[in-house]
Amino acid sequence: MKNRNLKRKLLQIPILLIFIILAVIMLLPIIWMLLSSFKPDNEIIRFPPTLFPSAFTMKNFIKCTQRIDIWVYLKNSFIYSFGATLPSLLVNTMAGYAFARYDFKGKDIIFVIFLATMMIPFQVIMIPSFLEVHALGMYDNYAGLIIPKIAAAYWIFMMRSAFSGLPKELEEAARIDGLSEFGIYARIMMPLIKPALVTLIILSVNGNWNDLLWPLIITSNSKMRTLSNGLALFVGARTIEYGAAFAGAAISLIPMLVLYIFGQKYFVEGQATSGLKG
């Protein structure tokens, strides 16, 4: 028995080494970016490159705050990311719940149409979306940024998959006890798909946080820019302010890193379960 356990542990060593190497490869760009935010520009572009700065400096962060209104951009990114994500929890979970738990005429056809929209690139619909937002008087404000991002076919598909895995006996028992349909959805079903909900929150917030194109299209006022738009200002036609750009990217990374650290347990579980069911 001891020999078998020893052989099993020895076989796990190469697998662990492979995972460690892959983790280092994946984390190296992030580590490089974080360390480069403390380097002067001439050291960032030095060849051969160095990983650690010869002397840590905070000048890049000071320059970043002086060149762009980073705190306004951070505020706009938070409003855009969470403002679009929180309503999407209600809209997409209700749609997914309806597709998973109710039978109604044309359900399968409607769901296929929803899935078909996932194959349409955003570049195809961005001009019609802009015209619609402009016609509704939502151009250059938070409503124009947030409302078009609330509902998404991918989230509806994921929520449908999560709800489909729950036993029907839960609903039947709740109906016998006199609970309303919305009560069954909110008090019985929603707590049981917590991993899928956390996955939706993390992916939606992260996607909106890093979104460059839609805020660039739908806003013209510099006070409405998000952080992704602001960081693009460091890349000019002939010059690139590497140090300030790395400092801004490091500031941008921190909120998403904190969000993932607190939600990683549910995120991994949600990706492994709800996303794989039909």
Automatic annotation (TrEMBL):
UniProt-annotated location(s): Cell membrane
This protein's UniProt keywords: Cell membrane, Membrane, Transmembrane, Transmembrane helix, Transport
Gene3D superfamilies documented for this protein: MetI-like
GO CC terms of this entry: plasma membrane
Segments passing through the bilayer: 12-35, 78-100, 109-130, 142-163, 184-205, 242-262
Pfam families: BPD_transp_1 (PF00528)
Domain ABC transmembrane type-1: residue ranges: 74-263
GO biological process entries: transmembrane transport
Listed name of the protein: L-arabinose transport system permease protein AraQ
